[in-house]
Structure formats: structure tokens, C-alpha cells
Amino acid sequence: MVGRDGPSDSVCPSIVSYGESVDKHRHVVIAGAGPAGLASAITLARAGLSVEVRELRGEVGGHFRGNLQLLTNYPDVRDARIELCSLLGSVPVSLWPQRSAQLFGPSGKCVSGRSSEPFGYLLQRGPGPTALDGALKRAAEEAGVQFRFRTRARPEEVDIVATGGAAAQGVAREWFGRTGLPDGFHAVFDNRICPGGFGYLLVAEGYTVVGAAVVGHQDRALEAFHRTVSFFRGRAGVPRIEHPTLSGSLDLFLPDPLLTSTFPLYVGEAGGFADHLFGFGIRLALQSGVLAAQCVLSGRGFGPAWEEHFGQRFKTGLANRFLYETGGHLAYRWFLAKASRSDFREVGQTLYKPGAAKRALATIARTVWKGQPDCVHGSRCVWCRMPKG
Questions:
Q1: Cα atoms in the Cβ-side hemisphere of radius 13 Å centred on 125
Q2: CA neighbor of 119 nearest in space, from 352, 343, 354
């Protein structure tokens, strides 16, 4: 059984295709054992290549201990569970489908966003056997991938880089633990609580995460966390929490498709594959890892491949982020009104529909939000935003 949603004998189609001319004796080295790196490793190893993953930490998902995150089921039409299943094969992973969200705006009023199909799946992060990272590691080991932990990979030895972001335009502080709260997906959109971001409360079978994400206001992240805890204590009965147990960051930049086909290939957040609007990056990480592996196998350039698959999404994501921040509370109210009237998964899909208006807004955003003068991404970056604090 994959997760807790669906029959135990379900068969999931594969999303990978293997090149016939690839050198089966090639040894591939991947730096980073996050979801993107493991997705690449599984895809390559199943095609018969020798694959080695090098990771600085002592285990996969090293700084997570079961924290809940959302695997989005939009904007793609194909169900995210099927994609994940094709990577994991028979390896089980805990998934909690989400069809209802309790959303709070600046007024404090709650609206419900509901969908006929899941708008996403909560999953756990960390080395646990049914957490995402632990499950991907087991699938990789079954495919023949070799792991070297507490090992730094030298640049000249690496084929694929999946080491996460190099800068922080967005940051998050969150607490994870067990509570007696009912299952649910809750979010609050209010700049007085989380400037440029949102607060969240996620509960699945007692596993609970309370967190705050802010963009462009790193110095206010801890304050946002405490305000979020206070908000959900009054609305949902969250217990008194003194300190966050996890800190995270989000690197938002736009890669250059003309300069991303040479080795090493950068995937996941290291390659700019991030959700500029809400920061839900797990699915993009997995997809970019698989796509990079397919390019290794087929000989196709990674730059043109990701531009075809994700280029428009990057532009719409940046446009969405620009509208979200510049619109402020007006944008939040529009989003909540839309969510309360429409299928919530379809709202997510609509947000990422490409068009001339979104392309124009993305161009405006790049002009208004000046790039960093001291970019840490190198020549493969065409734009990245200067943090405010």
C-alpha cells in the first residue's frame, strides 16, 4: 500500500522513459540526498546505471523529524500520488489526502476551500520508514543506489547537484509535535501576522505542525511565528508553544535555460525549481530530479527540457508572487473569496494558467524587484531578488 489512500494492489504507471543509447557502464555522482537528488538517483539506477549519492548530513531528511509538508496536486492535471508511486514502487509512504482547507483572512473570518479531488497530500519529512525521505532512500537502495553520508562532493566529481538553496529570500519557523487536535489544513493570510507570507496549522493523526512563512522580511520570522501560534491558539486550540523546533529557508531565483545543460545539472531548489507563490516545492523537486535523469539517459539538453516543462510555470509563479505582495490584503481577500466559491484544486490550477498578462507581470516584477548585486548562483541565474532583511 502506498500511503493511506487507495487499494493495496493499486498499480501506478511509470513517469520515466529511458534512453536506449546511454552508456550502461557510466558512473553517476549526485550531491545531495533530498527529494530531487533521490528522484534522479532512482530513475538512473533503474535504467541500469551505477549511481552514488553523497550527502553532508548523516542521514536523509536529517533536520526533519516527521514534520508535515504539502505535496501539491496542482497545477498539473496528473495526480501527484501517481507520480510519487511510480518513483517508490512497492515502498510504502504515509500520505493524507487534503480536500478541505480552513482559510483565514485579515478580518479573522474563516472560509472553507473544498475540492472533489485532493488539492494536495500531507506527508512527513525525515528518515522514518514511511516518511518521504526515508521511503525514497529505501526505493533508491532497492534500485542499487550507493550512499555516502557525511561526505562532501567535489564539484569536478558531480553530475547532478541537489544540495538545496544557496540564498534565502523566504524563511519559515515552525513547531512540530503531537497534539489531540482534529485533522485539518489551516492557513492565515494577514500581513500583520506573516508579512508577505502566511501562517499554517497542519494536523494529521495527531502529528501537528504550526508555522509561519515570510518572504522578504527575514528579521520578522520569529515574531511571525509567535503571532501565528497565538492566532491558532484562539481559533483551533493550539497548545502554548514557546519556541520553534525547525527553521527553514526558500531560495527564489530564475535559472537561464541556455546555461543549464552543461554538467553538473542543478535540480530542486539548487536549480531554481521552487514555488514562488507559496513555497510548496516538493513536487517540483521530484519532477526536476526525474527530468534531469531522463536527460542524462537520452542525451537531451537539460535547459531546453526544463524550459519546455516548467518555463511558463516559473513566469506565472513570479507574477503570482508579485500580485500577492503588492496586492496585500486586497489580494488575500480575492483569493479567499475565490476559494470559497470554486473547487479549491481548480483554484490552484487557475493561478498557474499562462497568458500574456502573467508574462507581462513577471517582466514588471523583475524590473521592480531589482536583482541582487552579489548573486550567489553564478552565471546560470538570470534574476534573483534582494532580501529586505
A1: 19
A2: 343
Tens-digit pLDDT profile for residues 93-117: 999 999 999 999 999 999 999 999 9
Rounded Cα gap, residues 366 and 284, in angstroms: 22
Start-to-end CA distance of the chain, whole Å, equals 45
Q: What is the pLDDT of residues 325-365, one digit of tens each?
A: 999 999 999 999 999 999 999 999 999 999 999 999 999 99
φ and ψ at residue 265, rounded to 5 degrees = -90, 135
Its pTM stands at: 0.93
**Using an 8 Å Cβ cutoff, are 71 and 84 in contact?**
yes
- How far apart (Å, rounded) are the C-alpha atoms in residues 56 and 106? 42
Among candidates 155, 81, 173, which has minimal Cα distance to 118?
Answer: 81
Question: Residue 92 has what DSSP assignment?
Answer: -
Q: What would the CATH number be for the domain defined by 27-98+114-165+251-310? A: 3.50.50.60
β-pair type (246-250, 207-215) = unpaired
CB 95 within 8 A of CB 172: no
Q: What is the DSSP letter of 7?
A: -
Q: How far apart are CA 296 and CA 266, in angstroms?
A: 12
Torsion of CA 291, 281, 117, 64, to 10 degrees: 110
Listed in sequence order, the residues at least 6 apart from 117 whose beta carbon sits closer than 8 Å to its beta carbon are 73, 79, 99, 345
Any alpha helices (H) in the chain, and if so which ranges? 35-46, 80-88, 132-143, 221-236, 282-298, 302-341, 344-351, 356-368
**pLDDT of 12 strictly over 70:** no
Instruction: Measure Cα distances from 161 to 26, 156, 355 in Å.
Output: 17, 11, 32
Where are the CATH 3.50.50.60 domain residues in the chain?
Answer: 27-98+114-165+251-310
Listed residue (137, 3, 1, 118) closest to 64, CA to CA: 137
Taking CA atoms, 215 is separated from 198, 230, 252, 322, in Å, by: 9, 20, 10, 11
Distance set, CA 283 to CA 84, 140, 237 (Å): 9, 18, 31
